[in-house]
Amino acid sequence: MFAGDDVLDAVARQVIFYADNLTSDDGWPAFGPRAVRAGVRGVLALPLATSAGSGALNLYARSPGAFGVVDRAKGVILASLASLAPSAPYAHEDDDRRTSNLVTALTTREIIGQAPGVYMERERISGDQAFDVLRRASQHLNRKLRDVAQDLVGTDEQPDTGQLPTTP
What is the pLDDT of residues 19-48, one digit of tens each? Predict the structure, then answer.
């Protein structure tokens, strides 16, 4: 409703501001008279600190003394809950992204673990030699190791390492 001094003070200082009666409160010389002309007599400005930035929850009353001690305490609780709301979707996105990354990592680990075994069986070479072939193929083809490993596990093709095959 209003963007007065109370909003700026609550945001900038991160403290609660309360005016019981704006007709007699000279704490906000620019905001107070304008609010009174609009019919507002009481203001409770509560800071909001969110991960997205800062803000304020401002409650206005038409009658003086409308916000008692219990009302101000409820306002603090409401502002605390309101501070959490803007960050909730981001937390959910982070959880989804983390879960997706873990599933990808586990799948990748499994495929990269299988590929040297497949190559060892086909070529009768050691595990270190098989992994070295996969590494060279990954570098030569400019592809991720997991993609080269997936191709090897999923097909009967040898990975292209960029070297000419040796003849026996």
Answer: 889 988 877 788 888 999 999 999 888 888
- Digit-coded pLDDT (tens) for 44-74: 888 887 665 677 888 899 999 999 888 989 9
Residue with tokens 């009302």: 71
Residue reference for tokens 């704006």: 22
User: In angstroms, rounded to a whole number, what is the distance separating the alpha carbons of residues 40 and 22?
Assistant: 8
Residue that is written with structure tokens 């609010």 in the block: 35
At residue 1, the pLDDT reads 43
* Domain at 100, CATH number: 1.10.10.10
Q: What are 19's strand-pairing partners?
A: 43
What gap in Å lies between CA 42 and CA 59, rounded to an integer?
A: 8
Q: Are 13 and 57 part of one and the same domain?
A: yes
Cα of 146 vs its chain's centroid, Å: 28
**Same domain membership, residue 95 and residue 60:** no
In whole angstroms, what is the distance from residue 50 CA to residue 56 CA?
10
Residue that the structure tokens 């996105």 belong to: 93
- Amino acid (1-letter code) at residue 53: G
- Phi and psi at 44, nearest 5°, equal -130, 115
> Would the pLDDT of 5 be above 60?
no
